[in-house]
Amino acid sequence: MGKLMSALLGIAAINSVAFAGSETYSGKEIKQVAPPPCPQWYADNEFNVSLWGTYVFTGNNWENDRYIEADHAWGGGIDVKYFFHRYFGVGIEGWVVDARQGHEDVFIDFSEGIFERSVQRENNAIGAVLGTLTLRYPISCTRFAPYVFAGGGGVFGGGQRTHFVLGTDVEEGEPHDVVTTQQTGSTSEGIGQFGGGIEVRITPHIGWVSDFSWNVVNGPNNNFGMVRTGVNFAF
After folding, report:
1. Among 117, 128, 159, 209, which lies 20 to 30 A Cα-Cα from 53?
2. Does 162 map to a domain?
3. Residue ranges with strand state E in the chain
4. pLDDT value of position 29
């Protein structure tokens, strides 16, 4: 009886070792599924048309500014760009703002000892057309693309000047030497621009752009900042 039990225990031990050395598999195999590719929000060789509103503010007070001659102005614009390989774009932009310009009006009568000074304001349209170069960097797997840009062109509609004019005023038959002021017409100047911003794509063909640029016009007292925001259409 003892020998029989020993034999049975030996067989059980051998079987347990044999089963421990073998591997078992379930009837279903585990398959690895590749994640879907990221959506492409920005394309190579892309044509962009942007419409935006803009706010302009001068670098000096209006009394010292020599082109816009107002502290700020509102307006809008459009730009057209073509992007090569989604990172590099060239284009053209145009904008116009409504500037409420201030001009000093002076009257001096030397004979009567009269000195009068007032500020006259009038609304004038100021605009520009520029060629632009844009570098953008679409962030992988996101809708965001920061960008920087620079451009150059011409600006028109501002730059009026105030001149003092010496003349004679006749009252009651007696001539009086007087000084008055006159305004010249607008002038056109060259303009340089540089800035940066970001675009957020709502769809692969519609995005929202917002940026800031600093604009340099001929002369030290003509520079101004420009804030823009609007919609971009990509084709």
Report:
1. 159
2. no
3. 46-58, 72-84, 88-109, 114-136, 144-158, 162-171, 174-183, 187-203, 206-217, 224-234
4. 60
Whole-angstrom Cα distance, residue 95 to residue 234?
Answer: 20
What is the model's pLDDT at position 168? 64
Residue with tokens 């492409």, as numbered in its chain: 40
Residue 165 domain-assigned?
A: no
Predicted model pTM: 0.76
8 A C-beta contact, residue 78 and residue 92: no
Determine the pLDDT at residue 117. Answer: 75
What whole-number distance in Å separates Cα of residue 94 and Cα of residue 32? 53
CA distance 131 to 188: 16
Q: The CATH number of the domain where 89 resides is what? A: 2.40.160.20
Q: Which two tokens stand for residue 106?
A: 């002076």
Structural domain tally of the chain? 1
Read off the amino acid at residue 185.
G
Classify burial at 180, counting beta carbons within 10 Å of its beta carbon; exposed 0-12, middle 13-18, buried 19 or more.
middle
Average pLDDT, the chain: 84
Confirm whether 27 is domain-assigned. no
What would the pLDDT profile of 22-54 be if each residue is shown by its tens digit? 444 455 566 677 777 888 899 999 999 999 999
